[in-house]
């Protein structure tokens, strides 16, 4: 007689790459809780510094004598924290390490505004207005692309877009971690791809220029040095990131189990059509959005001087100069790129979300008084408890790592190894990019890593015929590709905290395994694209940027 019991569907076969990721996840999850991990790493750095200090480990500082931070003898030495000075420094700086940890302040300030927008219902309504009914894969592409271009606005991608992407995917009945992974890949993995010049571009260009002047004192590097290549890379990373999300990451995550989530983050109403009050609220939020943009523009508006031949100037009552405010431009140079506008962009995030969130809530009926705004801010900060605890220990680890000079020693040693290989052809850049990617695993800040390694790499590669602009472009590929798999990246702890709201059992290994496919495919495709762009097609990486030095 035929068996009448329903047959359990056969589990899909797992290929070699999926099994590899499973292994990475398993190994990673053998690690303790991230808070415990950072505490152990901080303690380990203290112990290691004692050993290295006792052995007298040191490397030659590649920066020119007399530069800020360069020792009189021109050496970078391991500094021990296992002596009287070290112990006193730890005890007197523990609180300052925590409170001065840059990402902490940014996240707390931004979340005050985001909390208002979330509590008012704006984020829920906006998500439903944008994505419900949209083609499945179009949403994925849009999330990756939005992550890349968000880099222009500094930290907005980390503190706003990544958690929002999780909510979007959940609203569509998809795995929220897949949405967060796609956004994280765009924001951090695509950190050096963009359509516009961002805050990091002038910073890196300044470091590259100083390094280039060790060989050519008259050489200058502009903030737009890699702009052409960045624009093209935006579309490459969008395509690659979307394909990895659709065909690798989301299938591996499988069907989402909401029982593992924090119940407060799951909102079943995310699938409902917009009600009339919500539509009116969105219209009010749109007007508030335009008002904030107008204020932002006014803070950058310089004086406008009309040409003398302007017909309107024939009347005596018409001024020849239309005064602007421009208060957030650089007060000395008038520049926009290196200005308080960008360095303080988190304040705009705060203002923006409070303005549009309250405008929505007031019209939609979800917010009536200032008490509602205050309650929303308090609720937002209350949700960051785990992140704040994690930051305390992560901040100590990062501080100890910097004090001991172990990060700088690692970077210089790796760069020197590459120098000793003796390669001079364009294929050298594949090894250079890989070296930068490996160094980035232990020295997560793009500017900090480049400040140490640029004085080695830039003069070395200039002397064998490559321009500083091309060298910088290659460095940025390596730096960006591994941002998403290193706990040393400043916002890694924040992403982990966001992710655990959807999966309370998620560990460091799960997050690294989820992001590792992006790193691998970004590294391979981006490196090949760079080689083709610069050395096969002979295209400039930026306006007026030569490929070779001297220009050929």
Low-pLDDT parts are 1-12
Q: Counting H and I runs of at least 4 residues, what is the number of helices?
A: 21
What structural category arises from helix and sheet content?
mainly alpha
- What about the largest sheet? 2 strands, antiparallel
Give the topology string: H per helix, E per strand: HHEEHHHHHHHHHEEHHHHHHHHHH
* Widest β-sheet, arrangement of strands: 1-2
* Rg (C-alpha, Å): 26 Å
Our estimate of the beta-strand percent is under 5%
Number of strands: 4
Percentage of residues assigned to helices? 55-70%
The overall average pLDDT, rounded, is: 81
What is the 3D form?
A: globular
What is the oligomeric state here? single chain
Report how far apart the termini are.
Answer: 83 Å
What does this structure look like?
The protein is an all-alpha fold. Helix content is 62%, strand content 2%. The strands form two sheets. The protein has a two-stranded antiparallel ribbon with strand order 1-2. A two-stranded antiparallel ribbon has the order 3-4. The radius of gyration is 26 Å and the shape is globular. Residues 1-12 have low confidence and may be disordered.
